[in-house]
Structure formats: structure tokens, C-alpha cells
Amino acid sequence: MTIILGLESSCDETAAALVANDGTVLAHKLATQEAEHRPYGGVVPEIAARAHAEALMPLVDAAFREAGLGLRDIDAIAATAGPGLIGGVMVGLVSGKALAHAAGKPLIAINHLEGHALSPRLADPSLQFPYLLLLVSGGHCQLLRVEGVGRYRRLATTIDDAAGEAFDKTAKMLGLGYPGGPQVEKAAQTGDPAVVPLPRPLVGSGEPHFSFAGLKSAVMRAHQSGEYSTQDIAASFTQAVVDCLVDRTERALDTGGPVSALVVAGGVAANMTIRQALAGLAARRDMPFIAPPLWLCTDNAAMIAWAGLEHFREGHEDGMNVPARPRWPLDPDAEKVRGAGVKA
Ligand code: KG4
Ligand code: ZN
To answer: Rounded to the nearest whole angstrom, what is the distance from the C-alpha of residue 120 to the centroid of ligand 2?
Structure first.
């Protein structure tokens, strides 16, 4: 059995996990920094880096205790090396290097986005390449053709905000607090998705990309008009995002080449309305739909350990000089578009 220790610290969750090659999650530990960042309504990089430094090693110890294992029992250490907030990424990567050096085990530097991209194969080992991945998180909104480990073709990305960013900003505008996505989902449950007229940017467009900036401004105007309830705005906003995601994903299915399944990953994939709409799209096209369980959609270290396993199987290993990268595209050949920030 191959066992990998995974470390994650690229945004506002600190996490450590032990995962075996048959997909068994032997332990996964997570500390969220939500309380530290809440007063500021978003992630403060300096606070994040300090909190990662304090939380990471105790989580590693706790993961080993839970699994009844020690450093000598693992085969490699996989640490997120980017993209993300550089201070936090460095905490995890340097810790991974120190552990790898001390234990004499290989280090594998993982792209956080690849962790999300391969997580559906941890959730469902029968999932075969190539599959179409809708990666929707706080910093990214992309459609990727996942062709193999380390082989990602970006079919679409956002030209402005990421979907998660739109959820977070909508929550802030509506006074729902941080983190925004789950709060908007809760408010939307008692709202009417058809009440507030909101735009669906780029829906039906011949270009492949996403855009959410105009939607965000329209939400702001609707809120300021005082005509609509918070719940109706939250529900109508969610429906507009759903329509954009489904339309763009359908276009990618039409034009991106054959795939074995439609897959969704990233924090926004925790949203039930979005999951159901994508499941409906896959059903209409008679193809399997795979969405990892909620805890595996939002940031965690099991997906990093799993991506490490996929690379370990292929003999990949990184040197101690591997750098932390604030930006690290999954498809380096993809054309540049304006794009969103560095949060992954
Ligand atoms: O992947 P993730 O945990 O962190 C990175 O961005 O890497 O994604 C976080 C994003 C945030 O924008 C958060 O608001 C959003 O995912 N999110 C949700 C839900 N849960 C988390 N968005 C909509 N509905 C949710 N239930
Ligand atoms: Zn993420």
C-alpha cells in the first residue's frame, strides 16, 4: 500500500491528510480561519500566513495519531506549492520540505487547482480520463478537459470575477457575512429565483468564457432599489449563476471533444442548486455526472494527498528547491484572458 501525507495552506483553510492508493482517506484534519478573517469580510493574507504557521504541524500530528501511523510509514509528502496567497503557500511547502528531509521521503509539489481537478477520482475511482471538469472556486471559474495526470486543456475561464467571488461579494452586499457562498445558499432557500430580473452574462455567446462582473453590479442595483427581499435576491442571483454555468458547460460539451463524464469540483460545487442543475445537464446528455462529497469540494488536504498519489504512481518527485508559486496555471498553453485573482 502507498500512503501519502498531504498538506494544504493556500488560502484560509489549514489542512493535513493521509490517503492510501486505494482511495482510503486514513485521516483528514482541517482548521478553518473563518473566525480570524470574519471581522474584515475577506481573507487577510498576513493573518492567514500566521494562522497556517500555528495550525499546520498540530494538524499533521493529529492526522498521524488518528491513522495510527508515523512518518516512517508514509511513502511521500505532497504539499500545495501554489497558486494562492504566497505567505500561506510557503508555510505548507516549507513544512513539507522539512518533513520530507527529516524522514528521507520524496516531496511532491502540488498545484492546488490540480488537487481540485483530480479530487473526483478520489471520490469515484472508476472515473476515467478524459473528463470535462467545471472548476468553480473562490478564485477560479474554468472548464477544463482533464486528459491525464498533469494534462489539462483549458476550454474556458472567467474574463472578470470567479463564481465564488460573485457569491462572496453578493453576500457582503446583502449583509450576509463571510464566507459568502453558504450564507447565500441558506438565504436562497426561502427566496423566489424568478422575482429579481438579473442578467446572464455571455449566455448564448459564441465565445467560451464566463463573466460575472455585470451580474454583481445588477445585484447591487437590485439591493439598493429596496424593492426586493434579501432571500429573493439570493435566490435570483443563484439562478443567474446556474444559468451561466449550465450554458457555458453545455457549450464546452458541444465543442471540447468527447469525454467520459461531466465533473464539478471546487468550493462552489458545494452548492446544491448548482449540483442539481449540472446533474440535470448530464442526464439530458446521457452522461455520468460526478460531484465529490461536500467536504472534498471545499479546500482540504485529502485532495492534495490524492494528487500526490497520482503523481507518485507516475514516478514524479520534486527537488528541495521547488518554488512556491502565487500564480500557476493548469494549462500553460491557454490564451491569456483578463481573468480573476490568485485565490484558488
Ligand atoms: O475551493 P474553495 O474552498 O477555496 C478556494 O477558492 O480555493 O472555494 C471557496 C469558495 C468561496 O468563494 C465560497 O463562498 C464558495 O467557494 N462556496 C460556495 C458554497 N460553499 C463555498 N458557493 C456557493 N454555495 C456554497 N454552498
Ligand atoms: Zn480551492
So the answer is: 14
- Is beta strand 131-136 parallel, antiparallel or unpaired with respect to 141-148? antiparallel
Question: How far, CA to CA in Å, does 320 sit from each of 26, 133, 326?
Answer: 26, 31, 18
Contact 132, 253 (CB under 8 A): yes
Q: In a mutational test of the pocket of ligand 1, which residue from 161, 189, 298 has the highest number of ligand atoms less than 8 Å from its CB? A: 298
Q: How many Å lie between the centroid of ligand 1 and the Cα of residue 34?
A: 12
Q: Is the peptide bond before 130 cis (omega within 30 degrees of 0)?
A: yes
Radius of gyration of the chain (CA): 20
269 lines ligand 1 (CB under 6 A): no
Q: Could you tell me the pTM of the whole model?
A: 0.93
* The three three-digit cell numbers of residue 197, written as one number: 430580473
What's the 320 CA to ligand 2 centre distance in angstroms? 24
User: Over the chain (344 residues), what is each successive 10-residue block's mean pLDDT?
Assistant: 97 96 97 89 89 96 98 98 96 98 97 96 94 95 97 97 95 90 97 98 96 96 98 98 98 97 96 98 97 94 98 97 96 79 41
- Ligand 1 centre to CA of 268 (Å) is 4
Q: Which domains does the chain have, with CATH numbers?
A: 3-117+296-331 (3.30.420.40), 129-295 (3.30.420.40)
Is the distance from the beta carbon of residue 137 to the nearest atom of ligand 1 less than 6 Å? yes
